[in-house]
Every structure is written in structure tokens, then in C-alpha cells.
Amino acid sequence: MPDCRNRLLAGSLGATMAFLVCAPRVAQAQRRCRVADVAVSPSQTSVRVGATYPFTATAYDATGNPCDNITFVWTSSSPALSTIDANGIAHGIAAGSVEIRARTGVGAAARTGTAVLIVEASVATQSDRATSSTIPGYSPVFGRPNGPGYAAFDRQPEGAGPADGLFVDPLQLTLVRGESRALDFRAVRGGDGQNAQRIPIMFSVDPGGERILAVDSFGIVTSLGEAGAATVRLTIPGQQRIQPKLVRVDVRADTLRFNRVDFSMTPGTSETLSVFIPAQSRALNPGGLFQFTSSDPTKVRVNPVNPVIEALAPGVARITAQSSIYPEITATVHVHRRVTSLRLDPPDSVRTLAIGGRTTVRAAALAADNTPVPEAPITWRAPDSAIVFDTATGQVTGRRSGQATILVSVPTIRDEALTRMVRIRVVAGGLSVARQRFGMGVGERLPLEVQLLDDARNTVGLANTYLGWTATPDTVARVDNGNEIVALKPGRVRLTGRATWDSTVALDIFVVGDILVTGQNQGRRDLLVKWNNGQNWSPLTSDSAVELQAAWSQDLTRIAFTARPFSLQPQRVPTAALFLVNADGTGRLRVTDDSSMVRYPSFLPGGQRIVFESNRGVRQPAQIWMVEVRGDTVGVARQLTTATPGVANTAPAVSRDGLRMAYVSFRETGPGRPVYGIYQANIDASEERLKTVAPAGQRLDNPAYSPDGRTLYFLRSDAGRPPAQRVYRLNLEAASDTAVAVTPPGTFVNAFTVSGDGSLLALAITEAAQGNQQGAQRVVLFTIGTGATQAVDTSPEERLASPVLRPATPRPAVAPSH
Questions:
Q1: What SS3 class is residue 421?
Q2: CB count in 10 Å sphere of residue 561
Q3: How far apart (Å, rounded) are the C-alpha atoms in residues 430 and 451?
Q4: Which residue, 83, 160, 346, 451, shows the most beta carbons closer than 10 Å to its own?
Q5: How does strand 172-176 pair with strand 245-252?
Q6: How many CA within 13 A on the CB side of residue 476?
Q7: From CA 563, how far away is CA 751, in angstroms rounded?
Q8: Neighbouring residues of 618: CB distance < 8 A, sequence distance ≥ 6
Q9: Contact 554/811 with Cβ under 8 angstroms?
Q10: What per-residue string of b and e applies to 72-92 under the rule 16 or more CB within 10 Å gives b?
């Protein structure tokens, strides 16, 4: 604790921070409001000997807003004349004038409000009543003359010299019905404007205004039950040289309400409500106009004369104010369980935030059993200019470099509160990259640009020169020269850039090979990735299922594939499910889970929607479906193509822009003449167009778009013996069917894909064999321009199939300028 005492002495800001650090973390008790002023109502009144009168006190902060949950100490300047109890109820003892005081706080923080109580010795006569008032004013002047106008002496300040004029404030007055307001007036000298000797003043209401208001001999204006305008006239009897004064009074029928209509309290606390006039943006002194009641005094108690309420027990009560002039007004009070602790998110620790960056802080009030008390009113304060704090949403925005503290408090009992803090460190600038997750091929290099952001999240320049980079693991990829990503081998790497002011930016990079295939791996048929012209490979899956077909997402971060259970008789296992994994083989997610056969998965841009072929449904030919996967959440698959009786739509392929798809369908193009055709449609299967048909007896399969979307490649079987199946291509921009063969005659291509630049085909070829034996299958790369081939197999035992060349590498490492 000596260290804490030293820190408390080290400057104002440091002392503030030290106090918050050194104070107990859970039970820092403090006032919920810094009291700047205290007002006692009424400011002057009278009471007979033996009678009582209730005073109320309201505390205000420096901006004039009332403070809640404030307790007062009541005292009397002369207990021999009047006493006052802890609830502000004064009791007349003997005749005389007493000052009533209400104090809150101690030491330098103490604030006191005062009022004058006149204790009258005897029952007033009718003439006394004409010259007495219980509305705020001044003490009676001892020995003043009797006669018309001399009652005004009681409310004039002492002065010197003869009066030359009369000062009155205000000259225009706005009241609501039933309200009273005291005029302020004094005799003044003409020479210097100072207070003169007291003068008698007669108060009257000009003809026509008597039904609207009344004024007594002390200058107390009281509005009656009718709205309208009237004039109060102040005249000085016997002194013609002092001109009368006119006060215009506007009595309005404005509606009233409580200043708080629905709020929470904790047992043992008190609140002072006010009757508010919304149209005039001010409070009304409710004394004499209203009677206050509680719907459940066991939960909430209210003073019947003034709206001072006290919470007693958990529950809900309605406070009602009734008047003979106004409709009743109500406020609902929720008394919640006592709060014993506060839970913060983030906890009491320093959170680093860049200028313009955003984070969210939250707090929960907890009861003694550690369960939330959601009704408890939580108060937030962020006095530091380094941040902008939205108390409604809890969002914090860095504004300028520096340290900031957010204080959160909740009332516990009476005027005490639990206070906790969140410390925010705002650093020099935010960091941004175009995307934080993308893929690239082995051996590729991509430029990396990290943008520096200002407080409006606008780009103000590059931050590369301020960053140091780490790679985990550093064998998959690294950052060279602070501005280039180098891919080393397949896998996943987290690249983290840290600025000199401790801001960080992180990227997840998936380094992928050149080709995906299915092949033998330790006696299983798994999904493999190959690179370095097929010389290097690694498994992406390792399980008992048989992987069949795969597809890369366009950003190279995810792979969709189909797989079926292992069986010694695969022809008797007609099911295959759709799966999704990260590009490094992690995060396996099953997308379909039924008894259907799924084939030909294809991603749409963005990597969240997958189109595939499935025969799901009762006795339904295969159709094309789409499913959306966000993170680990799989949406409901929906059917895209229409199920015409007996017609299947299969083997979907999606264009790189995601706007179109091509698929195979076996249907009649003329009466009794069903043939295979390839159709193109919008991605929602609308505006279907037949693009090419196969000769009778020949099959079509496996359509695939070129990267630019202008050419469609597909498989077509050839007539004759031995059987052959070749890759054809079709110009989609031509007006007619211009399909031509790409691969040489006599080859049997089982499956293929197009490279990211459109120059290569990866072919799965079944070689010819003698007799009835099935030939061996191999995977080769076929150059479209020259017809040259290159084997991908490293040994016949691999038995590779279903090749998939990776798409063109996206270039998301460069952030766009704002």
C-alpha cells in the first residue's frame, strides 16, 4: 500500500488512475452524482405552534439535472422554536422565525440548502389571512405599519433613501393551472439603481382576468382552473411619481408527467421525483396540487405530499399523482434484488485499441448468488477524450492516442454504488488488409500491403514499414522485406504483423498444391494434394471412407468433396455424402446427411455456397441443388432445377463469376428422340438454353467452364470400338453448336478439369487393355495448345483419379484505398 499512496500524490490524472487501481475492485463505494447545489421546497412557509410541515430537498449536479439516491441531514437553526426529523418533517414549538437546513456530503463536497419556517403563535383571524402567505418569500418585517400595501414590506429587501422606481421580476410569467409563483420586487433609487427604503405596494388583477388568476398582498400569483392570459398590476398608494408595473401572466393547460416514468431501484434507496411540464421543459412544485400514493406500499413507499419514494422490497409498484385539476399521472418503479458485484467484459485489464478502431465493453450486475440482475440501472462514465464511448451500445471508438478509463457503476444500497473500470490504451493508428484469409500456390509470391487508418477509418498511407512479421509455423510461408508473402509448402500459416505502437494485423494463409486427386494411401482411397510436377504429395484426408470428387473454392481456402462408405462391393453402396474441409485438411464438416448420391460439387464465389448433383427425394431422378455453409453452420439445401418426370439434370459446373451454370440432361429434343444435351442457365436455373447435343447413342458428361467463361469443355463418348471418350470444347458466344474435340481419338477420359489460366487440362485416362480386362487409369496434364502430355503419377500403385487443378490464385493481400 505505500506504493499506492505515492501514486495518489503524483498529479491529477495519475492520482485518478491510482485511486481506481488501489481502491477495492468490487466494492468501490461512491456517489452516483456529484452534487453542486441543494434546493429545499418550499423556500418559505409558515406553521402554527403544535402543527407539522413536510419539507423536501432535491440535489442537482453542475448541469442542473437532479441527482438520485441522495440522503440529507436535516437541522433547525433554533430547535426551541421548531424541530425537524430525519424525513424533513418540521414541528412548530414556539413562535418565531427558523432557518431549516438540508445538507448532503462531507468536507469540501458538502452542499446545503435552506428554507425559512415562520412559526405562528395563534390561530389567524380573517384579516390576518388576507395578509399572510405560505408561499416562498421573506421573513415578516418587525414593526411594519398596518394598512393597504404594507404587507409587501415582508418581501422587499432593506434599502436606504427614498424610492424613485419599482423593479419587478419577471414581467412576463408562464404558469400551469393551479400553480403559484412569487414575484420578486424591490424599491430602487433613480440615481444609482440601488435598493431604496421599502414602499407599500398594492397587487391586483386587471378586469377580465379574475377567472384566470389571483394575487395576494405579498405578490404571490396563483393561477386558477382556467387557462388564458391576464395582467397583474403593481401600484404604489399615495405616490403618483412612481409608475405602476404590469406583469403579463400566461396560464396554459399544458399536460404534466413525472420526470421518470419507468425506472429501477434497489431496496433501501430513495428517489425524489418531480412533476414535469414537457411543453415548458421545467419542473412544477407539486405542493398542494397533488396527492401521491403507491399501488404497493410494501414494495415502494411514497410521501403523500411530495413525490419522495423509498424502495422497500423487490417487486413492482406504480406511483400515482392525483389532482382535482389535472388527470392523474403515474410512474412505474421496479425494485430489483440487491446487487453485490459487477461482471465486466472485458475484465479489469488494459485493452489496446487503434485510433479509429472499435471494441465493445459490457457489464452485468450480479446478485449475491452470482445470477444477473438485468433490471439494475448501470451507469457508464468515460471522462477521457482519447475515446468516444456509446453508452447505449457499449461501443468504444479510439479517438486519439493516450490512456482512457471507462467507469461503470450500479447502485447497491442507499447512496452507495459498486464501481469497476475498463482501461483502454489508444494507439497511433489502425491497420487494415483487404482480406484476412486467402490461399496461394506453392512457390508463389504475392505483394502484401497493410493500410494505416485514421480515426475515421480512412486510409492515410501504408503501414508496412512500421510492422514486424512472425509466421506460425514458419515452414509454410513467410513475409519477405515486409511487403511480400512467399509460399513454401502446403499447409496453413498465421502471419502476424505488429506495429511499433503495438497494433497488430493477422492473416491466415492456406498454401496449396497444384492438383487434387483421389488415390491409394496406406491401403485407403484418400484425397491427396500434389505439387512440384507431382513429385511431392501429402494426404488431405485419412479415413475409411472412399473419397470420389473434389472442388477448390475460388479463394483456395476450402475444399468440397464427396465420399462414400468403404465396401468390398462398391456398386452396392449407392450413397455418397458431401463434405467440406479447410484447404489444409482440417475442420472437416459433413454437409449432406441422407441416403442420396452426391456428385460434382462446385463453389460459387465467396466460398459459402456449393452447387451439387443429388438424387435425394423419393424415386426422383438426380437434380441440381445448392446449399449455403457459413462457418460450421449448414443451411437447408434447395433444389435449383425442376424435376420433369423421367428427366435428370446432372454434373453441374459454375462459371467463375458465379452467374451461370452448365449441366447435362437426357431428354427428348423431338418426339421419341431422347438424347444427351448440355444446357446453360442462370445460377437459379432460370432462362435455360440448350448449348450442344450428342449424337444418338453417345453420352455427355462433366461440363467445365474456361476461366474467362467464354468456352465450355465437356466429355463426349465416341461411337465405335474400342470405346472412347474425349474432351470437347464449345464456343459459348457462337450462335450455333460448334463443339470440336480437344483430346486425340482413341483415348478414354474419365474426368478432367481446366487450369486456372486455361492452358492445361488435367485428364484421368483409362488406358486400353487386351481382352475383357480393364486398363490401368492414369492422370496426365494435357497442354491444350500443343497436345503435349505429362504424367502426374509417380507409380502405378497410386491409382489416381478425379484430378482437380487449382483455380487462379486470388490476390487479396493488397488493400483497396478508401
A1: strand
A2: 26
A3: 8
A4: 451
A5: parallel
A6: 19
A7: 16
A8: none
A9: no
A10: bebebeeeebbbbeeebebbb
CA distance 332 to 317: 6
Cβ–Cβ under 8 Å, residues 700 and 681: no
Give 155 or 625, the one with higher predicted confidence.
625
Residue 150, C-alpha cell as written in the block: 404594507
Backbone angles phi, psi at 16, to 5 degrees: -60, -50
User: For residues 385 and 392, what is the distance between their CA atoms, to the nearest angstrom?
Assistant: 18
3-state secondary structure 450-496: CEEECCCCCEEEECHHHEEEEEECCCCEEEECCCEEEECCCEEEEEE
Taking phi over 0 as left and psi of -120 to 50 as alpha, with beta for the rest, 317 belongs to beta
pLDDT band, residue 700 (cuts 50/70/90): very high
Query: What confidence tens digit (pLDDT) does each residue in 473-504 have?
Result: 999 999 999 999 999 999 999 999 998 777 88
With CA atoms as reference, report the closest residue to 650 among 601, 700, 690, 613.
613
Residue whose grid cell is 404604489: 236
Integer Cα distance of 541 and 532 in angstroms = 20
Contact 303, 294 (CB under 8 A): no
Is residue 150 helix, strand or coil? helix
Could you tell me whether strands 350-354 and 417-427 are parallel, antiparallel, or unpaired per DSSP bridges?
parallel
Spatial distance between the Cα atoms of 300 and 486, rounded to a whole number of angstroms: 70
- C-alpha cell, 500: 511499433
Q: All 3 cell numbers of residue 488?
A: 513454401
State the pLDDT confidence band at 758, using cuts at 50, 70 and 90.
very high
CB contact at 8 A, 780 and 790:
yes
CA angle 792, 798, 802 (to 5 degrees): 65
Residue 529: beta bridge partners? Answer: 516, 538
Angle, alpha carbons 355-360-364 (nearest 5°): 150
**Please, are residues 438 and 812 in contact by the beta-carbon 8 Å criterion?**
yes
pLDDT of the residue at 187: 93
CB 539 within 8 A of CB 588: no
The pLDDT assigned to 697 comes to 86
Cα distances (Å, whole numbers) of residue 549 to 225, 517, 598, 634: 88, 8, 10, 20
Residue 242 is classified by DSSP as S
With vertex at residue 108, the alpha carbon angle to CA 102 and CA 112, rounded to the nearest 5 degrees, is 15
Which one-letter DSSP state was computed for residue 355?
B
Residue whose C-alpha is closest to residue 361's, from 369, 371, 353, 370: 353
Before 66, cis peptide (omega within 30)? no
Which residue's entry shows cell 421419341? 672
Instruction: Provide the β-strand partners of residue 639.
Output: 625
Q: What is the pLDDT of residue 450?
A: 92
Please tell me the distance from the alpha carbon of residue 187 to that of residue 399, in angstroms, as a whole number. 56
Task: Pull the grid cell for residue 121.
Answer: 403563535
Residue type, 280: Q
Asked if pLDDT for residue 387 goes beyond 80, the answer is: yes
Q: Does position 509 have pLDDT exceeding 90, yes or no?
A: yes
How many residues comprise the chain? 818
Tell which residue, 116, 106, 112, has the closest CA to residue 78: 116
